[in-house]
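Dear colleague,

Thank you for sharing your sequence with our group. We've completed the structure prediction you requested, and as agreed, I am returning the results in plain text so they can be pasted directly into your records. Please verify that the sequence below matches your submission; if there's any discrepancy, let me know and we will rerun it promptly.
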Amino acid sequence: MVRNILTIGICVLMFARLASSPARGADESSEGAEKLFATSCGWCHSEGGREAGKGPKLAGTQRSDEFIVDRIKHGKPGQMPGFAASLNEEQIAALVRYIRGLPSG
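Please find the predicted structure tokens below.
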């Protein structure tokens, strides 16, 4: 009984600590943004967006941030799905920063 109470107490303390610590989002690190890109965009934009694949090369794009955000959210009919329902604003902003950080050469 004492062991069960101790185990429950430890679990409660661990949960409280996790709940009070700030969560790391994809926008907090380039590694997180790269993983987000790989799992959301990498199916079509080859080599992490550095090469054309099913989708165009994104490195060195001349499109505006607003265009990129709109395309991520709403897609392009018949060519790219929209991700507004599956990505939040922070994740989309992280993807834009990731794309802007790709080498243009």
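Summary note from our side: Helices lie at 2-20, 30-40, 46-49, 65-74, 89-101.

Kind regards,
the structure core
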